[in-house]
Amino acid sequence: MAGDTRDSQAAPSPPRGPPPGATEPPEHVKSPNKVYEVFSAPPANANALPDGSGQNTAGGREKNPGLTDAIKTVRIEDFKQVHMYPCVRESLLTGIAGGFGMGGIRALWGAPIPKAANWAVGTFVFASFANYEFCQYRRMLEKSHMKRAVEIIDRKKAEKEAEAKAKREERRRLKEEADKKAEEEAKRKSSWKFW
Length: 195
What we know:
Blueprint: H1 67-73, H2 76-80, H3 88-108, H4 113-191
């Protein structure tokens, strides 16, 4: 019976891949010279299920990171360079000034020193956080405005280039017409002879 899919004697499908005797992969398989994306390394456990399940195919669970694992990722160099991150220096200075001012005012108004210190610390944290977030918001706006300005500049540049190209084409066309007229005039004059 021809074409019966239940037939176990059916011929196997030809293997996919390069043709016999090919020494290199076909053009569509070759990898490009440039890498546009960097993918993460494969998981340590080959039996890991997709992220979020927390299980592997053997039924085991991966160890959840704890506080000690988080502390191990913190480096001293991070604290040495904290002032170099955008908006941090300005925010910390604002928080220090605000905390010092609020703590001083509370102390002058007769609040006990621990209570004034609590107000100072609270004001420091709130002012630093608020100033940091406001600075990040301003940076985001500045980035979007700069992106918009670059788009406008690029569009105007393309318009000017198109306009200049059109003018060049018009000048070239007028020059060709003038040259053609000059040739015709020269031919007409050369055909006039007195003798």
